[in-house]
Amino acid sequence: MADTTRILIDTRPLPVILLSKSYRYLVFALLIAVVSYLFTLSPPEGLSPQGYRALIVFGLCVFLWVTQMLPLAITGLLAIVAPPVFGVLPAKDTFALFGHETVFFILGVFIMAAAMMKSGLSTRVALKLLRGAGSSPKKLLFQIMVAATLLSFVMSEHAVAAMLFPIALEISRALEFVPYGGSYGRLLFLSMAWGCIVGGIGTLLGSGRAPLSVGILYQMTGEQIGFVQWSLATLPVVIMTFTAAYFMITRYFSVDVQSVAEADRILSEKNRLQGKPSASEWFITVIFFLTVVAWMKFGTKPGLAVISILSVVALFVFKAVRWKDLEEYVNWGVFLMYGGALCLSSVMDKTGAGPYLATQVIQGVGGNPLMVVIIFTLVALVLTEAISNSAVVAIMTPVAISVCIPLGIDPKGITLLIALASGLGNALPMSTPAMAIAFSAGYFKLKDTLVPALLMSFFSVLALLLAGKFWWPVLGIHILK
Amino acid sequence: MINIGLVKLDLFLHGVQPVSGWGKDFILVLPENTWVAVSPNEDSPYRVKKVGSDYRLEFHEQHLPVKPILPPSVNQQTTSSGHRVGDLLHSHGGFIAAAPRGPCRFAKSGFDCKYCGSRGEPVTAHFTNEDFVDALRLLLQETPAEIIHLSSGFVETEDGGMEQLESLVREIRKHLNILISVDVMPPAENHWIDRTYAAGVDMVYYDLDVFDPVLFAATYPEKKQAIRHERYLEALQYAVKIFPGGAVTSHLVLGLEPLASTIKGIDVLTDLGVVPLITFFPPHAAGLLAERWKPDLKEIIPIYAYLYEKISEKKLSTNWIRQIDVVLTPLEGRHFAGGKSRWQVAMKNFYHTSVGRKAAYGWSALRRKLRVKEVKD
Fold first, then answer.
1. Which of the four pLDDT bands, split at 50, 70 and 90, describes residue A1?
2. B residues 183-202 near A, CB within 8 Å?
3. DSSP strand E in B124-217: where?
4. In angstroms, how far is CA B376 from the centroid of its own chain?
5. pLDDT digits over A400-425, tens only?
């Protein structure tokens, strides 16, 4: 046995252990029983048998995504194979839906982010953004937030959090903070996490959920939100939430240190040790800027996915990244989940299950468009605190688009609202990977952040509604037509 | 009415008259499925007589039906690497004993060990785990035993001797369906006890032998120096939390200390949830014990009765110490306490059947599967 293996003996009573280990099988058995029973029933009035079966498959996937009893990616695969199994759509149709260009756009973005991390470019940029705080504690917090936000514009927010975490940890150790030993230690990690969250909604690159929602929108309506349009639409939301977050951090909590000169010294030293940028870093920088320009200019034709894949090819041409590096840095399971979500949204739409569900929701809320918009935004914001952000998008966007079209609500607007709200969870450790990473430092507990996080959620909803009401119409997105 | 428990103890003390062709080691199965290992003794009042196709044990104008169990013929067979099965394993019918890494601590003091069959001679052959598994497989084909008992001997390492047995335990677990018990020293740290259970050990012996701390130190100065008396109790207490109920035991050897001290040991151990195993090894003529103690069954019997009563009072399971031919088990103490323990006796007999062995092994494996987590750091 290797020395690195620890043995734990569970000394709880055996029935308790047995129950805790077998409950998932019981739940699966119950799930199979419920699904089997539902299949024996007749479809409700106004819904075809195919649509009814699609609705059952949707419910099954929602349950599995919410409870995460299966990995998100595996539920994504189930979403592809369940429709042919239950006679909703032929297998060749559902597998074809998996090849949506959104999946390949995300693939390209993730590979570029992996190249940045592997080459050390992202760390170099982060350190550049963090230098020069001097001895001012507030300035250092500001710079951490800025670094986290800006980096999350161009790469996945959880990757940014993972990259900044060791830097924040080193700073806190240099300043001799211990977990729960003072306020400033927790602020370092909170500013990192909230910066990532705010930056993650800024562009199509900050997370997978933005391209996913754009893909679902295109799949269901044929409408597109381009790279520039997305970035412009989110800009005021980013500015407002960033400002709110910074004030919350520096006003709600007390900044209980006088000087962070030691942290500045460490960051300067780290900057010095970075040396000159390598050839790979230069190649990646150039390719990345060219890619962003191409997304802005040719985002519609040949399309975002084509450009991002071509950029990846260029990275390999210049040997800026190796395939082995990608295996380590890219979360491959995410693609399966996104492919499944896109497939499911299309199945819902094609079989009439989506519109049927929409009719039920509209009847439930009395057909008030403003109420519908507010409810979807709030539900997305609350749901994202507990389950995967991408799962929220996968579950809610198809339903919301189906609901909004008959009510005259712009599907682009509701897509944006859900995608942004689902990225702004900031209270619980499981709300976003950035918060989970920040909590793992052990410098704060849930009770420390609950009230400011609730206030931040309030500001987030306010920012979203203000942007939707006053800014998005300028960009041609009218939530209430 | 003949007291079966008393006959067992008396057979330990006197042996039986030699029976032609049976050799010097054999087992007699007395009524109520009570097994006893006997040694031939010309002066014994006991003799085995064949009546028709059956055997009976005759003594003091009384007799009992018995069934002799001779050493398995497979003992003479060799493993694939050429070792004699009997050199590796010692069959006790229901359980098989071995000292795979050298003589056990008793054999080291110069006598043949009745448990594992090891002798004080230096080990010349280097048996591998494969040899043991091979031998065990051959033996189980002839003697379907319930448990294999492995002794580490006296070691002064922090693991208490478990590390050297661990690979063998895992190997047995991998190839054969048989319960495993180990007789090792209490390890320095409790995580070794976790590891012992996780490796596949179902039952553990941390043998005090002598309960009185002063006499313990005098009898086993090397153990006192290496382990400490208190550590035995700490380890036993912890092991009770890890192993199944009744699967943690400790020997107390009669005659090594005043009987009152043995009684105190029974109290303390049963309070901890440990099932004490009181061993009655009549003093060897050439041994030091013979000078110090002359066994008297009238003194010994109340101890076994007391053990049975304490076990019953504390509701400790006797399922794990089922069928030992060289020791009067706690359950067999019922013969001196007027107890019936019908359920426990029925369970013991059930576990001795083919289905019972499978059930016991399956349940033990399931328990381990549920309780053990191996976490990679």
1. very low
2. 191, 194-195, 197-198
3. 147-151, 179-183, 203-205
4. 35
5. 898 888 888 899 999 999 999 988 88
Question: B377–A6: do the CB atoms touch at under 8 Å?
Answer: yes
Q: How far is A310 from chain B (nearest CA, A)?
A: 40
- pLDDT value at residue B333: 95
State how far the Cα of A382 lies from the Cα of A70, in Å rounded to an integer: 22
Cβ-based contacts of B238 with chain A (< 8 Å): none
Q: What is the mean pLDDT of residues B72-98?
A: 89
Cα A133 to Cα A139: distance, rounded to the nearest angstrom: 6
- Candidates B166, B372, B377; nearest CB to A9: B372
By C-alpha distance, the chain A residue nearest B373 is A8
Instruction: Look at A17 and B242 and tell me if their CB atoms are within 8 Å.
Output: no
**Do A11 and B371 lie within an 8 Å CB cutoff?**
yes
Percent of residues in chain B assigned helix, strand, coil, to nearest 5: 40, 20, 40
Neighbours of A149 (CB within 10 A): 27
Give every CB contact of residue B67 below 8 A, 6+ residues apart in sequence: B28, B29, B55
Q: For testing the chain B interface, which of A3, A8, A9, A17 should be mutated: the one with the most B CBs within 10 Å?
A: A9
**Cβ atoms within 10 A of the Cβ of A318, count?**
14
Whole-angstrom CA distances from A358 to A44, A49, A58, A270, B255 are 14, 17, 14, 55, 87
Looking at the complex, report in whole angstroms how far the Cα of residue B199 sits from the nearest Cα belonging to chain A: 10
Position B118 scores a pLDDT of: 67
Say which residues have a Cβ less than 8 Å from residue A212's Cβ, sequence separation at least 6.
A102, A106, A338, A341, A342, A390, A393, A394, A397, A419
In angstroms, rounded to a whole number, what is the distance separating the alpha carbons of residues A306 and B6? Answer: 91
Read off the pTM.
0.69
Which residues in B lie closer than 8 A to residue A9 (C-beta atoms)?
194, 197-198, 242, 371-373
- List the structure tokens of B315: 């509701």
Bridge partner residues of B148 (DSSP): B96, B180
Which residue in A268, A257, A297, A316 sits closest to A136, CA to CA? A257
Question: Taking CA atoms, what residue in B is nearest to A5?
Answer: B376
Give the pLDDT confidence of B231-245 residue by residue, as tens digits. Answer: 999 999 999 999 999
| Residue owning tokens 């993650």 | A200
